Amino acid sequence: MKNEIMGVFPLWKPKGMTSFSAVKEVGKRFNTKKAGHTGTLDPDVEGVLPVCLGKATKIVEYLTADHKTYKGEVTLGFSTTTEDAGGEVVDKSHVDRTITENEINSVFKQLTGALEQTPPMYSAVKVKGKKLYEYAREGKTVDRPSRQVTIYDLDLLSAPRVNNNGTVSFQFRAKCSKGTYIRTLSVQIGEKLGYPSHMSHLVREASGPFVGEDCVTLDELDHASAEGRANDLLIPVERALERFSSITISGEIENKVLQGAILPVPEQTFSMDESIFAIYNQEGRVLALYKKDEKRNGMMKPEKMIRTIHD
Predict the structure, then answer these.
(1) In this predicted model, what pLDDT tens digit does every residue of 80-109 receive, in sequence order?
(2) 280 & 160 share domain
């Protein structure tokens, strides 16, 4: 197989940098233009941003679809155009009563599970071929399609705090599905408590299998590059795909898989409920993602080729 870069760089994205810029900076340091992130982080948000490099860009869509975990803060008392602390105030209401932990926990229970969200105007969602934030910057508001997301866990991390300006803030941790807007979730929390609100702070703690402890800053990457060990910081695609059920094949079948062949489903996978599973060779390298062939009973076909016969 060719010696081309292939791995996931677990970046700790700093505040003040767009995800696009962060990916560009990582790609530059690894001398490759083939780089892609696995879920946008707003410029004001720091945290886990796995960057797929080289042939690992083939798995971007699967990592993007994985769950994310955030540590955030809601502030009750006013809402903003952007639903976070950086926007202009659009609604204000004095918090004139005590907000209890029990009350917040009750709201969190109501918001756990399937949840309808309308993407904020200041977001990259496209409507009629144009990003919502482009409309917003023109002072326009357009109809946005609601989407269903899933909040797997929503936990209160701190007691409500009364701030000097009369607002009330509290921290939470949310584990959620792809496409969840924590800014919008913060507004929804406030609505259920009876006050305009916004997200006043946010950190992404995990993205799929990657957590903060895995992550490396750009400065740390620069130090490693200067010492010639940048590649040591890459995480193999095998770790990135560990959530998929696996099938280990024999050496004689390996070439067929590398050519994208449709093959009989191994006996041990007949009972698998998963729609996609990872195919590994005898050396423990993932070759492809396969799925059961709905048109050919007892057969499986490629879902995504990770490595090919030409590599």
Answers:
(1) 999 999 889 999 999 999 999 999 999 999
(2) no
